[in-house]
Amino acid sequence: MSKAIRVHKHGGPDVLVFEDFEPGKPGHGQVLVRHTAIGVNFVDVYHRTGLYPAPDGMPFTPGGEAAGVVLEVGEGVEGLKPGDRIAYVVRLGAYAQQQIVAADKLVLIPDGISDEQAAGMMLKGMTVEYLLRRTFKVKPGDTVLYHAAAGGVGLIFGQWASHLGATMIGTAGSPEKIELAAAHGFHHLINYRQQDFVREVERITEGKKCDVVYDSVGNDTFSGSLDCLKRLGTLVSFGQSSGPIPPFDIGVLAQKGSLFLTRPTLFSYNVTRKELEESAQALFDVGLSGAVQIRINQRYALSNAAQAHADLEARRTTGTTILIP
């Protein structure tokens, strides 16, 4: 019998229950995977609390990214065999020792990338890929503001965007997090607990402001993020860790310089197999080249997922966090 984290009711970290769970046998087009490492992301908190309802109701297994080994393949599966090292991103189900996954969601992990790195980079790294290569095509000379620079996505984003030639401005909430972000591609850092980030962006850019702002914080930063954009700038709002953005008058975008606003998700960008493969390949390429390094800053046993969530919500974590089955 395998085990998994199951959620039977919405609530705090204590609703994450480690219990027996039988994944079953892989059907047509499916693969049974034994996990070796599981990524932890803030979206997992949203599912746990009910902010993002689980599509199939209760109970459910949270978690959207993992790496592991193929145990068994179902009928109709080609290109995969038992023993292959794989990684994937799905909506739910990764907080488990074993999981049935659709074969077309799996990618082979290349030599040179560990299972832990793959588990910690798939959702976060492919999020960075679509954000800076497809949502807004970051190019040399662009000035970029990124909130929560010391988070898991932020540390990948800073390295990759800097590699592309952008000037990177980041916000973080402590001297330690600022130091960490500075070591991962950010050229200018703002302590949002002590400084007004809008004024600091104005100072750093000498009044020119930013071409694009990437904001996963939401309610606390939304209005200020708009004020950091130059004329025809773009605000990419891709999360809401501080709470949902309240309704606002769309005319504000015109008043502040005909700004662009988008609310993208990874699952809208990587829909087809071709999109998934190209996104994963771009991520693996920058990882193998050394342009982006994935460091695991926190490890928890799968059975201790509740503590991982508590630390994540209390902002006690930095960078990449994984669960070990």
TrEMBL record:
Every Enoyl reductase (ER) domain range: 11-323
SUPFAM superfamilies: GroES-like, NAD(P)-binding Rossmann-fold domains
InterPro entries documented for this protein: ADH-like_C (IPR013149), ADH-like_N (IPR013154), ER (IPR020843), GroES-like_sf (IPR011032), NAD(P)-bd_dom_sf (IPR036291), QOR-like (IPR047618), Quin_OxRdtase/zeta-crystal_CS (IPR002364)
Record-linked Pfam families: ADH_N, ADH_zinc_N
Keywords per UniProt: NADP, Oxidoreductase
PANTHER family: QUINONE OXIDOREDUCTASE PIG3-RELATED (PTHR48106), QUINONE OXIDOREDUCTASE-RELATED (PTHR48106:SF13)
Protein name: Quinone oxidoreductase family protein
